[in-house]
Write a structure and sequence with these properties.
The chain is mostly helical and about 200 residues long. It has one domain. The two termini are about 40 Å apart.
Length: about 200
């Protein structure tokens, strides 16, 4: 548990400040394998260092996203319970100042407080990033498993199971230079399939 907390502490900015995981991941562009290969041979990646790091960060963090989502949902429940148990002062303005303007519906008041609570807003923002990252990587994996299974295997071994470079060179029967070319190609394809790269 401590490892997960540390991992998310250091990798948190990959999600919350990512230029890649934004917008609606449901609207990822359709791309064929042929278009992908032609684009790669034409561009020879064209990835910036920041895009490269962010894509790797997202892939490395993918196995932990389910846990992060569960933690965020639990944190939201704790904030909601805290607002119900400790209503404090109302954030709803009492327009006009009269007693008749006071809100008697405590549930409605709690909902409004929850929606405007800075803690809840921060957790919901992170939760949205985690969910979009998870959906995006799932779609990338689906594409690779259908069209380029060796790339799906590369992602699983390198980013999810943390295989070393030497292990991958041996398992995939490629040269060290071939390993770096494979990694670059996989990340480029990830960017194209997910719509991170135009």
């Amino acid at each position: 548990m401590g490892f997960l907390a540390l991992f998310f502490f250091f990798s948190h900015s990959v999600f919350t400040h990512s230029v890649l995981i934004k917008g609606d991941s449901e609207k990822m562009p359709g791309i064929t394998l042929k278009e992908l290969q032609e684009s790669y041979s034409r561009d020879q990646t064209g990835l910036t260092r920041q895009q490269f790091r962010e894509m790797e960060g997202i892939l490395y963090n993918y196995p932990f996203l389910g846990h992060a989502i569960s933690d965020a949902l639990q944190k939201l429940e704790e904030i909601r319970f805290d607002l119900i148990a400790n209503p404090g002062t109302s954030i709803i303005a009492n327009e006009g100042g009269g007693k008749t303007n006071k809100i008697s519906d405590k549930t409605g008041e709690t909902v409004i407080k929850f929606d405007e609570d800075p803690r809840a807003c921060a957790v919901k923002r992170n939760l949205s990033y985690y969910r979009r990252a998870q959906v995006t990587v799932n779609k990338i994996l689906d594409f690779f498993e259908q069209h380029i299974p060796e790339h799906a295997l590369f992602i699983r071994r390198k980013y999810f199971e943390m295989a070393t470079n030497d292990e991958l060179v041996d398992e995939l029967n490629i040269s060290p230079r071939g390993y770096y070319r494979r990694r670059e190609e996989v990340l480029y394809y990830c960017g194209k399939v997910a719509g991170w790269l135009l």
